[in-house]
Inverse folding.
């Protein structure tokens, strides 16, 4: 508890909570609609934007914001226009985004230490301005998902039927990718570009093991995200470890523990029903 | 003929994908309250035609009017039951929610109304899946899942119902009952049914068409043996085995004589 007297710790905790909200909600769609690859690509393209931010001398997060939203729009269109080559094109955009970043960063070689925090995150150093930015994006994400909950469900579950029933599925798909883009920007400070995809997918995947309902899955994913960021923060502070990586390792460890518990539970259930029929026969 | 209202009008429809014509110059008029059966060989383009009507495939050439308007405007009132669905069986969604999504374009505001729910329950009862409503969609058998998809299409209270081999994985008992349900529904809506089950089709529909790239259609539920042979590229007996008297006209030209 004594840790809470520090301002930067309180800020870090708040950052963890705000990031977990975006992550849990949007990550749930990423997992159930299976757009992990696209999301990973959007996350890495953000690096180009970071580079642009350095190059222009503005807050790199604004650069990331521009790059992720534009690439989300582009990918949304591509998946409708070039279905067969979608994977390849997304992979190429991923690489191009990073290449642009590398070149732009190299043009102004003064800030490379700070750059590490964008790649690997540092939840202990999130400025207050970015906290406000994150909070606003959270509100936008919650409002959109609250209002279009059923539409997103329809489009994620069975896009073809939704379209035949008269829903403009392209629009909702692109909107969903835009939410992914916003979430990526929010997460960069806390866990860094490289680790975004893990925090986006691990909490919802664990949540899925415990519920059949989409809404519950989101809620549980948010709670898990908060536990992982807070726990990761604690360990990284106590043992002087990099925060982003600690958060991810904690999440991954929890994922495997949860998976084993589920396996064990199923095994016990099967064993029990096997025994019952055995006794019935005997 | 002139005062009958055509809910569907297809004129010179061509669908060409990657340079291969899948539908050529299809012309079709379907009157309101019609029950049209479409038969044809594998790859004949039946699914493609239904997808055009459901607004999922754009015609390459030609005109498709539904309810007197150009496509798209009325998709809210088209119930489509696909031949295959490619959704994720692990998706966190219950049977009840799937059927409710049939009402997605009808709901007002952000969530479904009591009426929407009643409709969904009614249709679940109709296909005898009401007791399964709280199950996760992946925990159903293929035939059960197909019934849920029928309920979903019905839940949107369609004016036109498009069914792509809806009984392909149904057991005989349900299939028989299902055709009775369709006969009943036909009082309220126009139905187009794609099926390989010619005997069932000929028993319930009032018009039958044969599709192999082009559509062979003349009013009534009989098809001349010449058309069948042309479409399937094989003798009639192989196709209409056991049911020639219902599908084929009684006399003129039993082939092979
Ligand atoms: N997306 C596509 N791209 C290219 N060709 C396609 C596509 N979809 C269908 N086809 C082709 O169009 C033709 C008609 O297919 P369709 O699925 O409409 O046939 P069908 O009459 O429904 O057959 P079945 O009885 O097997 O269901 C087939 O030759 C198929 O190879
Ligand atoms: Mg087909």
């Amino acid at each position: 508890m004594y840790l809470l007297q520090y301002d930067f710790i309180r800020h870090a905790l708040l950052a963890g909570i705000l990031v977990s909200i975006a992550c849990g909600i949007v990550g749930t769609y990423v997992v159930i609609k299976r757009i992990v690859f696209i999301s990973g690509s959007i996350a890495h393209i953000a690096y180009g934007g970071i580079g642009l931010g350095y190059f222009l001398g503005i807050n790199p997060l604004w650069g990331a914001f521009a790059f992720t939203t534009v690439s989300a729009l582009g990918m949304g269109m591509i998946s409708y226009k070039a279905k067969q080559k979608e994977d390849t094109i997304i992979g190429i955009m991923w690489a191009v985004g990073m290449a642009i970043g590398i070149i732009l960063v190299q043009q102004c070689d003064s800030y490379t230490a700070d750059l590490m925090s964008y790649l690997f995150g540092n939840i202990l150093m999130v400025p207050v301005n970015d906290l406000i930015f994150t909070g606003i994006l959270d509100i936008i994400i919650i409002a959109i998902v609250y209002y279009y909950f059923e539409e997103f469900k329809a489009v994620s579950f069975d896009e073809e039927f939704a379209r035949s029933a008269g829903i403009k599925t392209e629009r909702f798909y692109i909107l969903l990718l835009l939410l992914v883009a916003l979430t990526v920007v929010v997460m960069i400070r806390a866990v860094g570009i490289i680790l975004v995809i893990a925090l986006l997918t691990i909490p919802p995947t664990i949540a899925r093991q415990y519920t059949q309902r989409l809404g519950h899955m989101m809620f549980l994913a948010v709670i898990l995200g908060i536990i992982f960021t807070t726990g990761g923060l604690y360990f990284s502070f106590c043992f002087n470890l990099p925060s982003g990586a600690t958060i991810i390792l904690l999440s991954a460890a929890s994922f495997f523990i949860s998976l084993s518990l589920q396996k064990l539970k199923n095994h016990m259930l099967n064993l029990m029903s096997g025994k019952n029929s055995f006794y019935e026969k005997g | 003929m002139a005062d009958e209202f055509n809910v569907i009008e297809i004129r010179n429809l061509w669908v060409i994908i990657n340079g291969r014509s899948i539908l050529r110059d299809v012309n079709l008029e379907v009157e309101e309250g019609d029950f049209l059966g479409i038969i044809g060989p594998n790859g004949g383009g039946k699914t493609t035609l239904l997808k055009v009507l459901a607004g999922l495939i754009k015609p390459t050439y030609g005109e498709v009017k539904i309810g007197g308007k150009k496509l798209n405007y009325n998709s809210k009132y088209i119930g489509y039951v696909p031949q295959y669905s490619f959704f994720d069986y692990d998706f966190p969604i219950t049977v009840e929610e799937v059927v409710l999504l049939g009402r997605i374009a009808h709901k007002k505001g952000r969530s479904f109304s009591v009426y929407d729910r009643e409709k969904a329950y009614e249709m679940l009862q109709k296909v005898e899946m009401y007791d399964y409503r709280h199950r996760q969609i992946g925990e159903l058998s293929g035939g059960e899942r197909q019934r849920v998809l029928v309920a979903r299409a019905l839940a949107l209270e369609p004016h036109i119902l498009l069914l792509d081999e809806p009984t392909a994985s149904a057991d005989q008992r349900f299939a028989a009952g299902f055709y009775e349900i369709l006969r009943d529904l036909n009082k309220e809506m126009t139905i187009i049914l794609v099926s390989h089950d010619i005997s069932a089709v000929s028993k319930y529909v009032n018009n039958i068409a044969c599709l192999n790239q082009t559509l062979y259609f003349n009013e009534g539920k009989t098809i001349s043996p010449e058309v069948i042979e042309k479409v399937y590229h094989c003798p009639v007996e192989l196709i209409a085995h056991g049911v020639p008297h219902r599908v084929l006209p009684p006399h003129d030209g039993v082939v092979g004589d």
In short: Chain B touches chain A at residues 54-56, 75-76, 78, 80, 82, 85-88, 90-94, 97-98, 101-102, 104-105, 107, 110-112, 136, 152, 156 (CB under 8 Å). Chain B has a mean pLDDT of 84. Residues 129 and 144 of chain B are 8 Å apart (CA to CA).
